[in-house]
Amino acid sequence: MELIISGVIIFLVSVTIYSVFSSGINVWKKANQAKSSGYALRLVMEKLGNQLANSFRFSTIPFEGTEDFIAFVGLVDNEVSRVSYFLDDDKILCSRVQNYAEVFKKGESGKYDLLIPEVLELKFSYCYLDNATGDYKWKDKWVRGEQDTLPRAVNIELVFKKDTQESKFSKTVFLPIGTGEQKIELGQ
């Protein structure tokens, strides 16, 4: 009888220890999954911010941007390159890097990366100096014919799906060599 009781006690203690460790491992896995998706987002946005801050003016490759697309010149692997970020048709944030020769080729060229899936909205806005008032203002597109230089800053807003809910990420990147000066009056 004592043997049966001690066997049952050892069994119950073993099951309890197993359930505690199993629950702990499951919680750890879920926490790492949530942390890794946030980490990937922060890493991509940090890279985009660094590339934007290090962009420069280049006469044959303009800085261009709309609400959901941005393209600028940067050094990638010690080569002058055109770097662009955009949403593809499947709502995935993508980047494309084209070296100087690839920029002038017809069709799709360059290195194309899928960065963040399930992006619901991507919005870029561009800070410029209003010549009429002397104030800095924001606009939704940066067109080569209207500007002499790079924008003073770029604001990035990203709405993405995380699990079943929407999350929003916003970041403003200041461009050290950007003045945001206008060639023409915008009449705003």
Whole-number average pLDDT? 83
Shape: elongated
Largest sheet: 5 strands, antiparallel
Can you list the strand order of the major beta sheet? 1-2-3-4-5
- The number of helical elements comes to 2
Please state roughly what percent of the residues sit in beta strands, choosing from under 5%, 5-15%, 15-25%, 25-35%, 35-45% or over 45%: 35-45%
User: Helicity range of the residues?
Assistant: 25-40%
Rg is 25 Å
Structural class comes to alpha+beta
Number of domains: 1
Contiguous low-pLDDT stretches (5 residues minimum) are none
Helix-strand string: HEEEEHEEEEE
Total strands: the figure is 9
Distance between the termini: 92 Å
What's the short story on this structure?
This protein has 188 residues and is an alpha+beta fold.
Task: Produce the secondary structure layout.
Layout: H1 2-53, E1 64-65, E2 69-76, E3 79-87, E4 93-99, H2 100-103, E5 111-116, E6 119-129, E7 136-139, E8 153-162, E9 165-174
Antiparallel strand pairs: 1-2, 2-3, 3-4, 4-5, 6-7, 6-8, 8-9
Report what the structure shows.
The chain has 188 residues and is of the alpha+beta class. It has one domain (31-174). 30% of the residues lie in helices and 36% in strands. The protein contains 2 helices and 9 strands, in the order αββββαβββββ. A 5-stranded antiparallel beta sheet has the order 1-2-3-4-5. The protein is elongated. The mean pLDDT is 83.
Keywords for this structure?
188 residues, alpha+beta, four-stranded antiparallel sheet, 2 helices, 9 strands, 30% helix, 36% strand
